Amino acid sequence: MILDDLVQATRARLVKDKAAKSLATVQAESEHVGSLNPQAVYDSFLQPGIHIIGEVKKASPSKGLIAPDFPYQQIARDYDQAGVAAISVLTEPDYFQGDLAYLEVIAGQVTAPVLRKDFIIDPYMIYQAKAAGAKIILLIVAILTPADLRVYFDLAQELGLAVLVEAHDEDEISQALAVGAQMIGVNNRNLKDFTVSFENSQRLRNLVPPEVVFIAESGVKDPADVQALEKLGVNGVLVGEALMRSTDKASFIAAAQG
Ligand SMILES: O=P(O)(O)OC[C@@H](O)[C@@H](O)c1c[nH]c2ccccc12
């Protein structure tokens, strides 16, 4: 299963990253970041209407290379100017050709909060995210034990980071709610076979109370898909590949927001 490969690759990366820079150093760097306001992030998604998270993603395991020339700064600025609610930046290098350095550069250039999209399996990565300027991190329930999910969620909160907790079935939604998640993402892409179905978002929507942000992730092809998801009552939609390929990102985002 692809998730296992991703976790293994992430473990190997952590060994290298920690050898290059100690946890103490990354912690010290994270302390230089000014105070954050995670509640403002959650509140912005709870405003009426549909809120777009635009993703900066060069490649993916399901689609291969998406953006051969990858003007990531321009892409992020385009998203920002179009009024996205957040910008997701892939930082996973082995399968998504991401880089934490992309996130750091982007965070210095945009006003929208930046989300670290990675396979977080160690507190080190949470400090790294904050030090690089992320305001939101992703925690994927499927790759964490319930105990680790709680520890990482609490650490992120302590650091002032907002957390998007990714769940893909009823049990994972319960786990997310149990740790106190205020923003839950349901992935429409099945990571076992890569099939996409909005039925996931539809089925799980009612399990998440209205005061908790609900984000539908993956598989959006065009603005009409965003509007279809809006009708299911989701607060936000995470759009990667379709926006990356769009030659007019501003119009895509404007049309999606209706
Ligand atoms: O490119 P898409 O189909 O619009 O998907 C974006 C985003 O949802 C997807 O990249 C994603 C969702 N959850 C993840 C977890 C890790 C890596 C990537 C993801």
UniProtKB/TrEMBL annotation:
Domain of life: Bacteria
Gene Ontology biological-process entries: L-tryptophan biosynthetic process
Enzyme class: lyase
Record keywords: Amino-acid biosynthesis, Aromatic amino acid biosynthesis, Decarboxylase, Lyase, Tryptophan biosynthesis
Pathway(s) where this gene product acts: Amino-acid biosynthesis; L-tryptophan biosynthesis; L-tryptophan from chorismate: step 4/5
Residue ranges of every copy of the Indole-3-glycerol phosphate synthase domain listed in the record: 3-254
InterPro entries tied to this protein: Aldolase_TIM, Indole-3-glycerol_P_synth, Indole-3-glycerol_P_synth_dom, Indole-3-GlycerolPSynthase_CS, RibuloseP-bd_barrel
SUPFAM superfamilies on file: Ribulose-phoshate binding barrel
EC number: 4.1.1.48
GO molecular function: indole-3-glycerol-phosphate synthase activity; phosphoribosylanthranilate isomerase activity
Catalytic activity, as annotated: 1-(2-carboxyphenylamino)-1-deoxy-D-ribulose 5-phosphate + H(+) = (1S,2R)-1-C-(indol-3-yl)glycerol 3-phosphate + CO2 + H2O
Family recorded in the similarity comment: Belongs to the TrpC family.
NCBIfam families tied to this protein: PRK00278.2-4
Protein name: Indole-3-glycerol phosphate synthase
Higher taxonomy: Bacteria, Bacillati, Bacillota, Bacilli, Lactobacillales
